[in-house]
Amino acid sequence: MSPPLYPAFGVLLVDDEPSFLRSLNIALERSGGINHIHRCQDSREVMDILARENIGLVTLDLTMPHVSGEELLARIVEEFPDVGVIVVSGLNQVETAVNCIKLGAFDYFVKTDEESRLVEGIRRAIRLQELRQENQALRRRVLDDTLEHPEAFAHIVTADRSMRAVFQYLESVALTQQPILISGESGVGKELIAKAAHALSGRQGPLVCVNVAGLDDNVFADTLFGHQRGAFTGAEQPRAGMIEQAAGGTLLLDEIGDLSLASQVKLLRLLQEGEYYPLGSDRPKRLQARVLVATHHDLAEKQRTGAFRKDLYYRLRTHQVHIPPLRRRKQDIALLLDHFLAEAAEELGRNKPSYPPELAVLLGNYAFPGNVRELRAMAYDAMSQHRSRTLSMDAFKRAIDQACGEDSPSPHRQRAVFAPDEPLPTLDEVADLLVEEALKRAEGNQSMASRWLGISQPALSKRLKKQRGEGA
């Protein structure tokens, strides 16, 4: 399988010396991983190529027959202002370089410079062009509130605005080669987001997922990089690592926040250099997969405490997607409940049951520390016990009681805060306010409100009658 083209836009190399064009082409492919390259020896053809091809960056020689580099630079800046231009000239003159920058060139290099400097300069220009294009695409999608590829998100059940914003952002960064950091609590669906990012990338290779939590440094290296025969005791046959298995596709490193510091160094080098060494080999291999990472940890906090390398953190957060927890996506709960009940009914060979309206109210007031994964488990458990026409709420109530504990507060419950400059309410006033809030959240259902208040339904009914009597 041929490697995917990088970058998404073409890089046009313009020079009348075929040997220099060939040498620069090889250097970009070997050292920079840049293979979306067009070459042009005749300066008269440049403007036609720009009009015909999707070109994002041009390297331009100054001294050429027919049309000079400076004349071409001025025309490109005027007619194709979104195309970046790097001047690569044999003239080592400060005035010439300054004039090119004034005309709009991104950078200026002398052909006698070290090849690695030129390659790095081109890589830097590509990255800035990618950021500019990503910003334009994101701005367009947000302003128009559109998705160009909604089919990539068909497997994600949501009607939440914040999730739609995540989808729009993913579409904007889908074609870049830079890593994407996917963060969010356990169970929010980070792997589903990774699948969408892979689908949007257009890569023909597979999506390979690796959970790196708990892997020591040697196992991590062997898992990702593979090994040669005889690399260590027991290595009787060579084995391709996960990076090679994901060639032409996407590699997802899950639970990246649990990676050891020693392994973090290896990952950083892989991302910086774009190459790796299988264990026991002295010949490097190119990284030909897009890298995604996922974590439920706060990596910013971990790098502040020294548990995560700062340089790796900033390398990974180039593109960052945070998936909000289910408790902040209330309108998704009913949608997901219907989806999981239908899914479970199909697997169990049953008809999807109806459920009492109180169930949506009950779930809407639960914090879901396990997020979407927890709701799915609840739905499947309830379906496995379902016997009558209407789905019972008992399985959901038991699951919530086990998660929170009958006498323990919800892990996401916040303490009430009283204004220091206001008099404290009496216990009776606080109790009345609490009852009102419970009934409001329960949409008037006294049975559900009494559960949340920790009292019996008769006790709640008695208190409500007392309140009505006081108000009469």
Automatic annotation (TrEMBL):
PROSITE patterns, A to Z: RESPONSE_REGULATORY (PS50110), SIGMA54_INTERACT_1 (PS00675), SIGMA54_INTERACT_2 (PS00676), SIGMA54_INTERACT_4 (PS50045)
SUPFAM superfamilies assigned to the protein according to its UniProt record, in alphabetical order: CheY-like (SSF52172), Homeodomain-like (SSF46689), P-loop containing nucleoside triphosphate hydrolases (SSF52540)
Species this protein is from: Halomonas sulfidivorans
Assigned keywords, A-Z: ATP-binding, Nucleotide-binding, Phosphoprotein, Transcription, Transcription regulation
Domain Response regulatory: 10-126
UniProt protein name: Sigma-54-dependent Fis family transcriptional regulator
Positions of post-translational 4-aspartylphosphate modification: D61
Ranges where the Sigma-54 factor interaction domain occurs: 156-384
Pfam families: AAA_lid_14, HTH_8, Response_reg, Sigma54_activat
